[in-house]
């Protein structure tokens, strides 16, 4: 129910307050938080105090506000991706042991790949994928692997609304890339985000053969071994899928498509 002059509800304003923290930032001054949330300072102050009373935010000295541990606890305890991450972790660790490079796990969230887990080691190549971070579908091998295995109607909607901010990728080229990815059974992008890296990803399917995640690696261009990497990833993806299908192994995972 809307109860403000702008017509937004209390829930809308609470979400704006929590979402105002940019990626990698856990502390903001109250005035900056209000500005980023688009709220009057008095309204932001009242909401922050109420949220702090529930442990979702914490008030510090000098008017600073930080995300609360209670928020982290609730998200990690009840996240719908918890079962997926638990099922995937042993397989991701095995791949990392062999490659000594970045391994990531992503789900499709709208028109973006949302990364829910990532493993990396000192000395591995740069990887822009961060846990709880997002990347556009067309610049991420994980995003392409996810979108290329969605129903045709979903792909059509995606391509229809697609606009590359950099103007380098046209919708028709993207449609061809998705078709090639689906035909090959894996996605690959070389030097798109970082010029010296190559991303490869494969779909992870559930018991109903729906693509619910993508398992990927980021490796140096000079160490690219497609013939070895793809079968290893596909084997791991099948293993993750089997774990998701076994109710004794992990709690049930429900993809966004099943909700």
From TrEMBL:
Domain of life: Bacteria
Keyword Transcription regulation included in the entry's annotation: yes
Protein keywords: DNA-binding, Transcription, Transcription regulation
MF terms in GO: DNA binding
Positions of the HTH iclR-type domain: 8-69
Short name of one Pfam family: IclR_C
Protein name from the UniProt record: DNA-binding IclR family transcriptional regulator
The organism of origin for this protein: Arthrobacter ginsengisoli
